[in-house]
Write a sequence for this structure.
């Protein structure tokens, strides 16, 4: 959801930039009845704020082993690997890129993880890659017409 930048001010406050179209896409998923989750290795208040704006209720920060959270989410929602769409961009995401049913990485993902993704987006992280993946999901699942044209973000 971000471009990977970490911006700190002199007081140690952290800032992140989010792309509005990525956010709109996440809202479209919610409107289509698709649950979203966010798993990140860092911790930041702004991530919680943005997730709340977008209706993401499953937010996990400071996670060092993403597969543990993934297992909890599978159990919580009664899903199997093939029901999961996952997007990652670095080597910490490799295991879930291998396991999940449909996977994507942004254009600027680490080269070593691109080989594990089903799709490499044409957009960069924090610059519309999430939305590009969401559009693919909605169009290929027959849900595009039910959510396109709505202003949600």
């Amino acid at each position: 959801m971000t471009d990977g930048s970490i911006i700190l001010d002199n007081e140690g406050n952290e800032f992140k930039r989010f792309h509005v179209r990525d956010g709109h896409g996440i809202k479209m998923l919610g409107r289509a009845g698709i649950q979203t989750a966010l798993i990140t290795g860092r911790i930041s208040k702004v991530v919680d704020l943005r997730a709340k704006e977008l209706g993401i209720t499953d937010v996990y920060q400071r996670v060092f082993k993403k597969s543990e959270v993934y297992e909890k989410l599978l159990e919580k929602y009664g899903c199997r690997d093939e029901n999961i769409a996952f997007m990652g961009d670095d080597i910490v995401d490799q295991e879930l890129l291998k396991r999940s049913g449909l996977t994507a990485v942004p254009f600027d993902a680490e080269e070593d993880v691109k080989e594990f993704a089903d799709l490499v987006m044409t957009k960069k992280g924090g610059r519309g890659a999430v939305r590009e993946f969401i559009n693919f999901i909605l169009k290929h699942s027959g849900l595009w017409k039910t959510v396109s044209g709505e202003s949600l973000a």
Remarks:
- The beta strands are 7-8, 14-15, 37-39, 58-60, 85-87, 102-105, 119-120.
